[in-house]
Design brief:
Blueprint: E1 4-5, E2 30-39, H1 54-65, E3 69-75, H2 77-89, E4 100-104, E5 112-114, E6 121-123, E7 126-131, E8 139-142, E9 152-158, E10 165-171, H3 176-195, E11 199-205, E12 235-237, E13 268-273, E14 277-285, E15 292-293, E16 299-300, E17 307-315
Parallel strand pairs: 2-3, 10-11
Antiparallel strand pairs: 1-14, 2-17, 3-7, 4-7, 5-6, 8-9, 9-10, 11-13, 12-13, 14-17, 15-16
Helix pairs in contact: 1-2
Length: 317
Amino acid sequence: MKTFVLMLVALLALPAGAVPAVASPAAPGTATYRIWHWNVAGHANNFGSTANGLVDAILGSLKHRNPDFISLNEVCPDQYQAVLKGLQAAGWPQSATNFARFEPMPDANADLCGNDGGGPDQDPYGVAVFSRFAPTGTDRITLPYDGDKARKLLCVPVAGQPGGLRFCTTHITFNATYKTAQLNTVRTRIQDWTTTGGTVITAGDFNVQPHDGLLDNWYAPSVASAHNGNNSGIFRELDDLDPLCPGWGEQTTEGTLAGKCGQPAKVDLVFVAESRLVSYQADALPVARDRCVNRSGTFIPCSDHRIVDATATVTTP
């Protein structure tokens, strides 16, 4: 895993050594944050269970990576509560009573997240964010309806941190007909927050790959490679300088959908405005295959998505 520095501000790069566990100035006027994102397939692979190994896998990775912000997609309500309690018990948040948010995404056709005993489905899964620093509010923005789920953009402003910081998660539809409308809603909102002086970190399963034309108005023109070009946006994705596949990065799925540079698809992304970035890096971590079990007790991959572990040093206007 390597750390990449924007050419304009190379002199402000992080010093050699471990990334600090808690956000701290890397240089005057900057702050460094660590971000952890995972689409956990809480229903599809884990049937809503809190006892099949998924929660332990989440908490184990979080203990090891020690992020400042956490994004979960496709997490069931009971799983969310179990992670929340685990983080409280570990003393992770600065405020034990104000650090987590959950937003369900009800399904038009069926409920999700069956109970641990294999009974009927009961609850919708959703998206969740956890912030080491106490949020000062919550943005719960419903995206244009896709005929399937009530998908959301969930954000927490963190006024106690410099630069008007806001951390967001989202889960864009897989339905090609509605992707543009949902992506435009998310992009417009986080772009507005940025242009009015804020610093926004947005993670999620975008169900779109970096080279897809739908993200051309996300990526900044400086992202111009054989694997990702024609860009006109204001954002960088925190893995877009990975030498494995410049402009694109590493796979984040374990499926059969093809990506670039001989890899499976990359749909789990972390965006920050280029104007706010000093340095950044990200790494996609292979899926645990010996931690989670199905209802028959057989080990299965915990998810069909990889964990994304990222670090960003940002300016603090």
